[in-house]
Amino acid sequence: MDLTLDDDQKLLAESARQLFERTYTTESARDAEEQPDGFSVDLWKHAVDLGWPGIALPEECGGAGYGLLELAVLAEELGRGAATLPLLSSYAATLPVLWAASDSVRDRWLAPLTAGEAIAALATTGARGDATLVVTREGEGWTVSGTRVAVPFGAVADVLVVSADVDGPALVAIAADAAGVRCERHDTFAPEPFAAVTFADVAVSPDDVVGDAAVLERALAHQTVVDTAYAVGLAGAALALAVDHASNREQFGRPIGVNQAVSHQCVDMRVEIDAMRVLALQAAWRLDHHTGSLDGDPAGATRAVALANAYAREVLPGIFARAHQVHGAIGFTMEYDLQLFTRRAKAYELTGGGVALHLERVARSIGLD
Amino acid sequence: MDFDFTPDEEAFRAELRAFLDDELPDWWKTVFVDDERAMPFTREFCHQLAERGWLTLSWPAEHGGADGSVWQQAVVREEMWAAGEPRGPQYMNLNYIGPLIMRFGTPEQQARHLPRMAAGDVLWCQGFSEPEAGSDLASLKTRAVRDGDHYVVNGQKIWNSYADAPADHCLLLARTNTEVKKQVGISMFLVDMRTPGITVRPIPSMAGKSEFSEIFFDDAVIPVSDRLGDEDAGWTLVGEGLAFERIGIARYARANRVLEHLVQYANETVVDGRALSADPAIRARLATLATRIEAAKLLNYGAISIQAAGEVPAIEASIARIHNTQVEQLAGQVGLEVLGPQGLLLDDDPYRLLDGEMQRQWLESIPVTVAAGTTEVQKNIIAQRGLGLPRSA
User: Fold this and answer.
1) Domain count, chain B
2) Which residues of B touch A323 (CB under 8 A)?
3) Which positions in chain B touch A278 (Cβ < 8 Å)?
4) Of the residues A205, B74, B158, B193, which has the fewest C-beta atoms closer than 10 A?
């Protein structure tokens, strides 16, 4: 047992933190929201140069060969910097290609995705919760029609990894420029550029199948864990702002932070953020140590993932409510930075399955029939 | 990072569990019940542990220990607390009173006290709080006035767990200097509880008769040789002792045992033709409890990891303590919610559920956010030292 980060992991976190403190500050995060695709192409290039897209992918396909743990450590710093990048979502969508794709799909996508030259997106959420796509047999393959919503970075994705019922629940890789695919950015208060993707009789061959339900489940486990680590960073930034405000804002002739009604709200945030972090890191570590089939769970990863995701979604609304309460009116303005984190945190909370879904997974994992 | 115990540590845990299965009698619940067999049993049990070398596992060999790792110690704490802490009051000897004597005691004090602790022969209580000195402990008024080779002690202590066990010794804080800042004029003593002038009066609590007591000192004569550390240096020792103590109780382990029992109960119980475990509200409540238990456990492990690296986890230990005390309360709360009114029935009622465990858990956990430093005191520490916020008004 040792819950401390090693020197490499500390260095990774520290260098990322400095990048966001010095270069890609919250000013850059504000600019990014105004960009046509909703993120900073300049920051993405920088991330690609640093090798971040392949950090947790194997060296055989051009990655750095680190684990999900390192990506989670990095994700926290992205959150703290209010960075909006296709990094985490594209990583998760790359996993089915890595684990279960045919040679032709791997050859086409794996190296460019690992290098960050291409972007992938998981398209699994149906409108109003109905994830059904119409699948029609067409010779050896199929055509698929229907809609996916809230696809992360869907408007800039080069390849979509889509859940579809082709001879049973499966994932299929569909190039974004394939005939019949249309991607359109949603208009949302969340900074992450989500998109609606519609498929109109899009041709899919058996070679395009990149896994079954178990592959999707495991890819989503990776996705949700790094997203939770990202949310730890968002919450940490909100706490830092709250502490700064409580220390400097004076009323009745003294900083408001001398009042326990204020300071203890900051402490309550810290107490929950520390728990969010260690739960997320445990989930990442257990997924890294998960070896063997995708169905089994020898390392206790399924339970650890459910615990991390459920806890974070349970406490995050309260953490941000306290951050806003400590700030008073200024926290509600667009001029002040808190909103950058609050809006991202709400998007996190609602995507990747809500609190009820993750609590139910916890319930199953503790042995409730 | 590594989130698993080693195979050796797991094997040790299995051995410890088998031992507990064999040694704990059917009637054993915890030391905090009104069962006159409980306290004598804890003494006998500690002898058994001492014989196997498990009582002072974590102590250095020179003081009768086995140089065990902090992680072996964590395993012991988890298994003991989950089993109702059958070491009784003696966990305090092992966790911090012994280590304080190792660090600050004279060779004579070490020779006198440590072997008896290591043999499981001696019960200690702690004489810190006073009627007018709770969270503001440094304002304590009990006086120890130097007179040649002894001190004369007068005053009153309160909320002293195990004092009526009866305890053999008391780790006492008393004021030796009224001329200096309140934190500076305090000394720590290793007091023999048979000293004339010491009276113990139990205070009945919601959880039973034997929870805590008052201790009165009326011209009690304490030899100077029983002072631990320098005169007027007691406050520093308190800081050291309490830092050890914040992660010294594996409260998440008992909460987890409660959760296991509740899961089994929910699976086996049918209400209105439906398994209780099929009730989405019950499932969500138990799942929430599970998330809080895991958080408390990992935060404790995080603080221990810092300790293992040779640093002092001051803030981390306070954060872990807040989670741990709150999760013990949540376990009792959720436990009674799941059982309903029948959960209120005591151990000897024929209609009791789960052997009365949930009412006991609920009652016993009421004071855990108050004892040994309230949650609010912990939060002040975190606010000032952890977050750098200005001192409270």
Assistant:
1) 3
2) none
3) 295, 298-299, 302
4) A205
Q: Which residue of A has its CA nearest to B317?
A: A271
**Contact criterion met (CB < 8 Å) for A271 and B322:** yes
Model ipTM value: 0.96
Cβ-defined contact of B295 to A310 (cutoff 8 Å): no
Q: Do residues B219 and B335 both lie within one domain?
A: no
The two tokens of residue B386 are 């952890």
Please say whether the beta carbons of B97 and B124 come within 8 A: yes
- Separation of alpha carbons B174 and B186, rounded Å: 6
Chain A residue numbers with beta carbons less than 8 Å from the beta carbon of B296 are 275
From residue A163, alpha-carbon distances to A133, A322, A349, B296, B366 in Å are 8, 38, 22, 37, 50
Of A3, A259, A360, the CB nearest to B393: A259
Cβ–Cβ contacts within 10 Å for residue B361, how many? Answer: 25
What range defines the domain where residue B30 resides?
Answer: 7-122
Q: Would you say domain A7-115 falls under CATH 3.40.50.1700?
A: no
Query: Nearest residue on chain A to B321, judged by CA atoms?
Result: A271
A354 DSSP assignment: -
Give the tens place of pLDDT for each residue, A183-203. 999 988 888 899 999 999 999
Q: How far apart are CA A90 and CA A92, in angstroms?
A: 5
Mean pLDDT, residues A268-279 taken together:
98
Interface touch A311/B301, C-beta < 8 Å: no
Q: Nearest-CA residue of chain B relative to A10?
A: B1
pLDDT score of A292: 55
Task: Name the nearest CA neighbour of A54 among A79, A77, A73, A71.
Answer: A71
Q: For domain A213-365, which architecture applies?
A: Up-down Bundle (1.20)
Instruction: List chain A domain ranges.
Output: 7-115, 120-211, 213-365
List, by residue number, the catalytic residues of B.
245
